[in-house]
Amino acid sequence: MPRALPRxxxxxxxxxxxxxxxxxxxxxxxxxxGGIRLWSGKTERPGPRTHRIPWPRALHPYLxxxxxxxxxxxxxxxxxTGRYSLxxxxxxxxxxxxxxxxxxxxxxxKLASAPSRDLHALLIDxxxxxxxxxxxxxxxxxxxxGTLLGAIRSGEIIERDDDVDxxxxxxxxxxxxxxxxxxxxQRTLESASHRVVRHSDxxxxxxxxGERGTAHVDVFLGxxxxxxxxxxxxxxGELPVEAILPLGTVRLAGREFPAxxxxxxxxxxxxxxxxxxxxxxxxxxxxxxTRRRFENWFGVYDLNRHFWEDWxxxxxxxxxxxxxxxxxxxxxxxxxxxLGSGIGENSRLLAERGHRVLAADYALGAVTAAEQLSGGRxxxxxxNAADRRELLALAAEELESGAAPNVLLSDVLAYLTxxxxxxxxxxxxxxxxxxxxxxxxxxxxxxxxxxxxRPDTWHLPLEWLAQEIAPFGLSFRVLGTGxxxxxAGMRRFTTVELGAAASSxxxxxxxxxxx
Length: 515
Known about the structure:
It is built from 13 helices and 28 strands. It is of the alpha+beta class and 515 residues long.
């Protein structure tokens, strides 16, 4: 029987579509750009004669360029092909360049490195290290999630997985005690020289670096509470202790790893009764009630980090006018914390002016770039402003040292959630005292390219700023206004000085700033 010819495909700004054959249902497909798989998904059927699949949100900033797009079935047959033409790149990258850079949209809907044999080998080594450290620390640890699924199905990491998962079982415990346990676990991992990224008080990520590159091991906390099993970020339901303990073992990539007593029962709770059947288009869809419960119990400390990791690589820039403004306000040799420092360009300028500078950011790529740029001229540290404890710890260190710091927030505040800004304002209240200076710049007008999933399109009107800082005894005065060309288009910026409420913005004439 002759192979069916690929159907003609039409690429639009919001989706791609092609003709459906009679009787076809929704399909699991791979989408290729220039012959390289960029994502997998399930088609929609907006009409009886059409297949459609939307562009993933992670790709929206890159919907540009031109080339060939093809759709393959889960069995590898080319179903449809056609050309796309989406205009000039706005952010330095287009769709084709993502595949060429080895990126794909992963099961969480974010851009990540495409899985490979080298990556999987690194993950197995990292998994073994993390399990050993946790077991040595006296914790009950098991592989979990897609890692357990791969072990039970085939004895290997699932082909398209780009991470590995473990969980620590804490027994019957309340949310507060789970949070406290997460910090003990973090200290255990860090004492073994592992770098830990905190996603929440029940989800840690261990960064693994080796000759094959960089990867991560997710560490989740599992516990029973009020008769229900909970394992953030997505698992909540009926699972008896007997399905977890005593732990057994499973083989993964030829090595033995600890596993729950009844893996099949855990997998059914997580993935549903069809867990045995591979689904290349699988996406976690956490029930809203479960998501709200876990977020309220354990917080969200890593929101938008992957966006900023990618942004650092394509659009990072320092606004030297902000650093120069702060330089004029403080004496030579002042202590300055560059909070949200990006790759450290402003920190370098301030250090060259003779100041004692700490560059602080939560994007790992930014921290690495700043370390390379520093050359020992300024300190660099990963600080997550979404984690109030980290900011309070930094404030305590600064106050204990008697450093009397000043703070630079160059193009930062508008891109934080309201709660994270509250953490920053509490930090300023603690460290500035009566004499410290803080300079902040931010866009005050909405971006013409606004998308909620793109924090670089957010804005912060002065009215919001005044309302948010008042509870912390702070006020601001306007230092300048003007336009800056940003990754979200031309934006109107305001630069302010923040300080104790004795200062006022009233009667201060803005100085014009043109970029």
